[in-house]
Amino acid sequence: MRFHLKSRAGRALAAASLATMGASGIFAGLASTTTVAQADPKQQNALVGVGSDTTQEVLNALAGENAGTLYTPIRSSADSGRRQIQSFDALNPDTSGDQCITPLIKSATIYRPNGSSSGARALSRAIDGATTWGNGQTACSSTGKSVSGLIDFGRSSSSGSGTGTALTYVPFARDALSYAYYFLGTGTAVTSLTRAELNSIYTSNADYTDIVRGAQTTRIYVCDIQSGSGTGGVWATTVGYTRETSANIAAYTVCKNTSGGADYTGSPSGALTGTNAGKLQENDTVGLKAKGVAIKALAANASANIQVIVGMSAGNFIARANGVSSASIATGVRIGGISNDGSSNNLGLPYGNGSTEWNGSSQITPNTTFYNNSTFGRTLYNVFDSGRVTDPDIESLFIGSSSALCSDATAISIVTTFGFTQLSSGCGGTSVTRPLSSGTS
User: Fold this and answer.
1) Rounded CA separation 179/183 (Å)
2) Would you say the pTM of this structure is higher than 0.85?
3) How many Å apart are CA 1 and CA 12, to the nearest integer?
4) What three-state secondary structure class fits 210?
5) What is the Cα–Cα distance from 63 to 120, expressed in whole angstroms?
6) Which of 65, 288, 358, 377 has its CA 20 to 30 A from that of 177?
7) Residue 3 has what pLDDT?
8) Of 63, 128, 127, 50, nearest to 90 (Cα)?
């Protein structure tokens, strides 16, 4: 029997199945004429998901395991085969490994999609089969390979873009965005910003922006999120700027060009190459802190209070703070509040009561007012081939308010455990459609 050991859930299933095989052997010895029936491993035909960093761990848990903790996996209805899911991280959890995955047993080894946009592109190539996937990605193979039939859904922290019907973005939870920060200096951190201040910082056309609070001036540096990230795109829309304009590039250039040293190399962002080299993997607090330390060491900042910021998922921050994530929060990194969302609403912090700062160890919960805000809150999705959303297994797992992901109490509990909130309406809807995404990596 062969197991898919590149999937976390597959490793857990392999261990459980081996234990079952051992027990079967004992009983066979006691009654050699008895045949013990054993179903095939459910992970052999599990639906394959790739893409978003933000939702990778909650989907891992829904597949059965995350960060060494076992969860009850979601599964489709009996008449659709009790099908399960498996989900591949945006980057290899082993930072010394390559960026390859083997989606199905005996299938091709392919380049790992990193981010919401990359997940949608890989799914599109699995649907149309028109071009190969992973072209030029030497971290796996410089030769692209066909992914036709190898990917069933993409994880996405955004609703995509474009006009078309080939892809269906199916909502399942609510998240929020704010800025993660790391502060160094003799004063105190800027723990709250307005949307207007954030917009000015991200479009400054300068190395840094000075923010004045009372008698203190803090020099704010921006870090940018890798281009395939849905969080990066939604954060730009939330703050109200266009990515990669000259003014935006100038604002994040110091962070991009400043090496973070050993901590940065060992963080998830260390795997980013090409045009993303020097940018941060979404939700990478280790990389953010390392960048802050390196920027503070620059001669120009010898006597300055400096703060380095980047957009971050509140759900990811909460999951890390509560210890259910495989990643921790780097010491000294926090997530800030929004004192004016652009419509005179003071949202406070994205967790707890919105006003009490996390002490570095306590358990925290989402601030639902922040999550439900139309500007700084966002919906999370799984993306499917529109031609398959009525397939019994996909429909049973993901589509409609009665699907497993939208109605099963255990599944809902898993979603909230990872710092997200249940949608008040629209879970499992199929109204958001997009064209196939172009690209081969």
Assistant:
1) 13
2) yes
3) 15
4) strand
5) 20
6) 65
7) 37
8) 50
